[in-house]
Amino acid sequence: MHYFLGLEVWQKPIEVFLSQGKYVVKLLERCGMVDCKSVITPMELNFKKLCGSVAGPELANPFDYCQLVGGLMFLVNSRPKICFAVNTLSQFIVEPHRIHWIAAKNLLRYIQGTIHWLRYTVGNLRLHGYSDANWVGSLVDRKSTSMCCFSLGSTSISWMSRKQKSVALSTAETEYIAASMACCEDVWLRKLFSELFEHVLDTTVIFYKNQSGIHLSENHVFHDRFKHIDIKYHFIWDMVQRIVIRLQNIRTDEQVADILTKPLGKVKFLTFRERLEVVERPSYEGSV
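The structure assignment produced for this chain is given below.
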């Protein structure tokens, strides 16, 4: 298989590459940005501040904006690094302003210069994940953004960036809610793999950078401090007790999940993008 539903697949003896290069070209042609000047990061660092101060009658064309964001949503299937940017832009579909349209065009400029591939290699197929959250990620309704991504071996196979449904009162609470969402995704992946390969996976390690959330997932003595949290988010406690998952603390500068929770600077963005196994266009010689 080389091409399926807009997804390009190139196979080699020990590697498989996935991309949507042809779809990217069509999207850029439709928007008239094939020859635009490229940028290094998908979103400006101050975009959150700019969105919080949007005012006035400078509205964008809703039809054009929805069409563009819809095209970008399909592109997220092979580009985890733009997941946060698309998630943010999709929150303004009802009433897009000029600043949102400019941000969407900026994302297209990033895509124009980065037709990359996801690389899957033969190796240790151990499932592990990352969980992170951006407290008060939205200045409009003060809700936070949850993120999780899972890798089987070295390359990401599942990723998500989503606004939380309730307002969190602290960073510990928003991180705990994000970890619970990651736990639900892990349970689904484990069931999928057990059906495909008839093999029971080992305990999934989820890298997490909040000590309070780790203590809460292991000991409900802390429950009185978080009793206002919806009971569904305490599902993670049961999974930890059953040794299905294990939360492991990680340093902030090693948290790959940051790329899906907020805009990053050039150095940090490129570092985390590389760790997601996003590579340049591979050579087709020897492909199967």
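Interim note for the steering committee: The first strand starts at residue 3 and ends at 4. The chain has a mean pLDDT of 80.
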